[in-house]
Amino acid sequence: MEHSVAEFIRFDRITKFYGPLCVVENLDLGIEKGEFVSLLGPSGSGKTTLLMMLAGFEQPTSGNILLDGTAINDVPTHKRDMGVVFQSYALFPHMSVGENVAFPLQMRGLGKADIAGRVARALDMVQLSALVDRRPSQLSGGQQQRVALSRALVFEPRVVLMDEPLGALDKQLREQMQLDIRDLHRRLGLTIVFVTHDQSEALTMSDRVAVFNKGRIEQIGTPRQVYDEPATRFVAEFIGETNLVEGVVDAVQGQEANVRLVSGDSIVSAVSGTVTPGQTVFLSIRPERVDLSEIRGDARNCLETEVTDSVYQGDHLRVQLQNAAHPLIAKLSRRSREFPPGTKVFAGFSAGDCRVIAP
Amino acid sequence: MTAGRSKTGRSLLLLLPLLLFLVGFFVWPLFSMMSQSISDTAVLRLLPRSTEVLAGWDRQSPPTPEMQAALMEDLKAVDDDQALGDMVRRLNSARSGFRTLMGKTTTALGDTTNPPADLVSIDTRWEKPEFWLAIADALSPLTDRNLLAAVDLGRNAAGEIEHLPADKSVNRVILVRTFWIAALVTFACACIGFPYAMIAASLSGWKRDLMLGAVLLPLWTSLLVRTAAWFILLQERGLINELLQTIGLIDSPLPLIFNRTGVIIAMTHVLLPFMVLPIYSVLLTIPKNLMPAAASLGAHPLRAFLRVLLPLSLRGVASGSLLVFISAIGYYITPALIGGPGDQMISSIIAFYATGSANWGMAGALGVVLLVATLLLYSVYARLSAEEPGRR
């Protein structure tokens, strides 16, 4: 198999069994140098197992892992030169912050003065220089994770692996750390493989997102691609909120298809993959792309509905709608006017704002 | 306020059985053992009149008639043969010759038909100030004689502390031997117990239960049964020697019993749980991802073990070693049954003084020495573990 020259990591037909249980199934994935790739999926989808195999903690049952063109299946973890950041930090409790960060450099036999300089720079990078003599147990969760981060970066590893590193932090700290890590990635040109089950985290940080389900990759693409052009029903439902409406394809013209819904409405929609007329499909309509008005507007698609509930949620207004055959949710900007329950409204959206997904 | 106080009072009442038990079966015996080692009233309580008179004596000149008369009065008043025996033994240990002298004196004093005029007329030895000096010294209610003797020291005639002659100096040798055997057993337990605990902690389910059960089993068996089992295993034609000879590893039986090897093997087996369990519990608290983390940071498994797992589990090794060592220095049955005459430990000597020769003072003094050694060790351990880095 030929791969692009820039490809740095390649998972080549990786399969992993735990006993009779298949956790990763015949998986192919290429990651380029300097790329930030998130492995996103629910727990048990195989994303962490894949990361553990890349780190060398687990062995694939079959298939090869290539790093820079060479198979590393038989290279033990300590020779792989990959920095790993764990969810539970995994700092050494009997060493100070400085000793923790110095550890990988000592293992590589660097000189004392060299180590001191690099440790100082690495801690400076995460703004923890003042805490160099503290024990990990004296730090907050966010500080501990920043120590773990600087420890994983200080030896300039070829790849940085992160296994849900922000999972144990509270929301505000998590968002700050997301931006910090993204910033580090850009400044240092790191290659990062990031495992998470939090879709907004994956969208915020990544160059590309690989969506995992049941040991397979459902879709891989930029955050915009996986959100706007979900390839499968799983991706559409797992990333963000969506309305899934069943229908039958009437006709296909290029990248668009006419779909007749159960309610009888005809919708023009963009298509992911290939569909044929007569096929039963799902339409994915993102709630924030739906506009409501009391008169039939000039949008290409328009559904006649009635408001059943309307909830003010601060940054947006969430309106529940019901048409003849199915419910629909719309998220409106907070500047929008109120829609009391019982109001008859038209829900309009363009062809590019919805997506036909083969079931 | 009152309600609160009565509540405290009632909850203290719950503690009462425990406190009574502790005082009755722990504090009081300990205290009486320690006081036995320094109390010295065998002479004092039989010679009240002599005590008064001897207080005015210059400790050099020959005995005055008053001194002799007082001692005769005291000796005549004694009607308890056992107390008399205790006093004679005490005096004889300070100055040999007292046994015959006292025997002769009491017999003469008992002769009512022909009462002696003074002590010198019974035996001329009563003229010598040395005998009176021995009595005068024995009248003090407190003594350091036993404590000094426990570490092979004694006082000479001038009252200075000096080493006892070599033929009386066995305690120090036995104490050193006790600590040496205990140290060897501790070392053996650590060498076996640490890897054992590591394997047990890395397993799960029934395998872990089996390993822990195997190490706990000796604790649930009677000490005598265990020791007897080793007796069978270790003897010249026992299981081990027979097996080794059958598979051709050795030609003649190994000497495994009635020597140091046997004592160490049997004691290590008995004390192993006290090493394994503390290490095991500490290992369980070490996060599972530290070793993978060390590996990802470039540490070879051996270096990762030395730099991460070993330092983190040292606390368990230290408390295990302390438990084993302290238990080992008090061991009695195992060395007595499996060991030879050269393997007897300090407890055997204490038992000899307590039950064999009824010398409670010496038994108490050796007990105090053992107790002090143990407390010293414990304080060292407490200081070390307080400074233990990474402790929460």
TrEMBL record, chain A:
GO cellular component terms, A-Z: ATP-binding cassette (ABC) transporter complex
Gene3D superfamilies referenced in this protein's UniProt entry, alphabetically: 2.40.50.100, P-loop containing nucleotide triphosphate hydrolases (3.40.50.300)
Catalytic activity: ATP + H2O + polyamine-[polyamine-binding protein]Side 1 = ADP + phosphate + polyamineSide 2 + [polyamine-binding protein]Side 1
Keyword Electron transport found: no
EC number: 7.6.2.11
GO molecular function: ABC-type putrescine transporter activity; ATP binding; ATP hydrolysis activity
Domain ABC transporter: 9-239
Family matches, as InterPro entries: AAA+_ATPase, ABC_SmlMolc_Importer, ABC_transporter-like_ATP-bd, ABC_transporter-like_CS, Mo/tungstate-bd_C_term_dom, P-loop_NTPase, PotA-like, PotA_ATP-bd
Keyword set, alphabetical order: ATP-binding, Cell membrane, Membrane, Nucleotide-binding, Translocase, Transport
SMART domains documented for this protein: AAA (SM00382)
PROSITE patterns per record: ABC_TRANSPORTER_1, ABC_TRANSPORTER_2
Broad class of enzyme this protein falls into: translocase
The protein's assembly and partners: The complex is composed of two ATP-binding proteins (PotA), two transmembrane proteins (PotB and PotC) and a solute-binding protein (PotD).
PANTHER family assigned: SPERMIDINE/PUTRESCINE IMPORT ATP-BINDING PROTEIN POTA, SPERMIDINE_PUTRESCINE IMPORT ATP-BINDING PROTEIN POTA
Record's function text: Part of the ABC transporter complex PotABCD involved in spermidine/putrescine import. Responsible for energy coupling to the transport system.
Family stated for the protein in its record: Belongs to the ABC transporter superfamily. Spermidine/putrescine importer (TC 3.A.1.11.1) family.
Stated name of the protein: Spermidine/putrescine import ATP-binding protein PotA
TrEMBL record, chain B:
Pfam family membership, one: BPD_transp_1
Matching SUPFAM superfamilies: MetI-like
Keyword line: Cell membrane, Membrane, Transmembrane, Transmembrane helix, Transport
Residue ranges that the Swiss-Prot or TrEMBL entry lists as coiled coil: none
The keyword Membrane appears for this protein: yes
A GO cellular component annotation in the UniProt record: plasma membrane
PROSITE patterns: ABC_TM1
Predominant localisation class: membrane
Compartments in which it is found: Cell membrane
Region forming the signal peptide: none
UniProt keyword Signal present: no
Family according to the record: Belongs to the binding-protein-dependent transport system permease family. CysTW subfamily.
Cross-referenced PANTHER family: ABC TRANSPORTER PERMEASE PROTEIN (PTHR42929:SF5), INNER MEMBRANE ABC TRANSPORTER PERMEASE PROTEIN YDCU-RELATED-RELATED (PTHR42929)
This protein's name: ABC transporter permease
